[in-house]
Write a structure and sequence with these properties.
Helices cover 44% and strands 16% of the residues. It has three domains: 16-115 and 196-216, 2-Layer Sandwich (Alpha-Beta Plaits); 130-194, Molybdopterin biosynthesis moea protein, domain 2 (Alpha-Beta Complex), CATH 3.90.105; 220-294, no CATH class. The strands form four sheets. A five-stranded antiparallel β-sheet has the order 2-3-1-11-12. Strands 6-8-7 form a three-stranded antiparallel β-sheet, with no helix packed on it. It has helices at residues 16-31, 45-57, 67-77, 104-113, 144-150, 179-188, 218-238, 244-264, 273-294, and strands at residues 34-39, 61-65, 95-100, 116-118, 130-132, 135-136, 155-158, 161-164, 168-171, 193-195, 198-203, 208-209. A hairpin with a 4-residue loop joins β11 (198-203) and β12. The longest helix has 22 residues, at 273-294.
């Protein structure tokens, strides 16, 4: 039995806009040293827009891509940059690409620090406490009053508006947002959910790495450096190691130790005479009290 293999052959020309897009992406791959793939599933257009502006200010470019078109762009430049093919297997789901010449470690920190606030939706899990501030809401009394009452927010009606009488915590970190809370926060313009770009892969010099491999916590590095400094200072002080950072303390400690030695050995100098005599008087007084306790007649 003869076997046949069917192969798709495109009969219509590729749309010009797709060709233009592939060429644009290929040129960006050539121009920028580092490439970050970002998962944008569930990310709103507003968040993408603001992220694009932030990245542009850092000299980087954010492009939302079709995975197939980006693969074609990779094919166009793979002879010039063979390492780029390693990104193909990571092109799944909804994807955006960040092109940058900036250190990707610094860029990842920048993205983590500059998350975009958005409105809460029912079912969202909060990452921080939500506070309704005291003051005029500029809403007239009406159906919205029921939301304030359900959420136990203290209010008063004044000058035809609803006023919140005191700052009120309406939800805490890790709480799930209810429909009522989401509705009220939306009306008040409070955006408690912070959204960042979820980097899923980074092309470095010749390797593709996971974000977890380059994640940095500046505060932990600060603590480590501070601890290392303290340990080095104590080591230099206790050796002693004569460097300017500890010299003053080494001399002071040596001076105190010399004074203690001279005092305990009853060596009389102009610095120890007072302490030696005080020590002798204290010892004599102790001896006198001990004899007197055994011989009351002794005086």
């Amino acid at each position: 039995m003869c076997g046949y293999q069917l192969k798709y052959v495109r009969t219509r020309p590729v749309p010009s806009y797709k060709v233009k897009k592939v060429n644009e992406l290929a040129e960006l791959i050539r121009r920028y040293k580092y490439i970050l793939l970002v998962n944008i599933t569930g990310v709103s257009a507003e968040v993408l827009h603001r992220s694009r502006e932030m990245l542009r200010s850092e000299g980087s470019v954010l492009k939302v891509v079709k995975n197939n078109l980006f693969k074609l762009a990779i094919d166009k430049v793979k002879k010039e940059r063979p390492e780029i093919e390693k990104l193909k297997e990571r092109l799944t789901g909804q994807t955006a690409v960040i092109f940058t010449n900036q250190n990707p470690f610094s860029l990842k920190l920048f993205l983590d620090k500059n998350k975009i606030p958005r409105e809460a939706k029912a079912g969202d899990v909060l990452t921080k406490d939500v506070v309704i501030p005291a003051g005029n809401t500029n809403f007239p009394p009406g159906p919205i009053l029921s939301l304030f009452n359900k959420l136990k927010i203290p209010i008063r009606i004044q000058e035809g508006s609803i006023w919140v009488t005191s700052d009120t915590v309406v939800a805490k970190a890790s709480d799930v947002v209810s429909q009522e809370l989401a509705e009220l926060l939306g009306k008040l313009g409070i955006k408690p959910i912070e959204v960042g770009l979820d980097v899923k892969a980074i092309l470095l010099e010749s390797e593709v790495v996971e974000p977890s491999e380059i994640e940095l916590d500046p505060s932990s590095y600060e603590k480590n450096i501070s601890s290392a400094h303290s340990q080095a200072y104590n080591l230099a002080l206790n050796l002693p190691f004569f460097i300017k950072d500890v010299m003053d303390m080494v001399i002071r400690r040596a001076h105190l130790e010399a004074l203690n030695l001279a005092t305990n050995a009853s060596i009389i100098t102009h610095e120890t005479v007072g302490a030696v005599l005080a020590k002798a008087q204290a010892e004599a007084q102790t001896l006198y009290n001990a004899i007197k306790a055994k011989k009351p007649e002794f005086s």
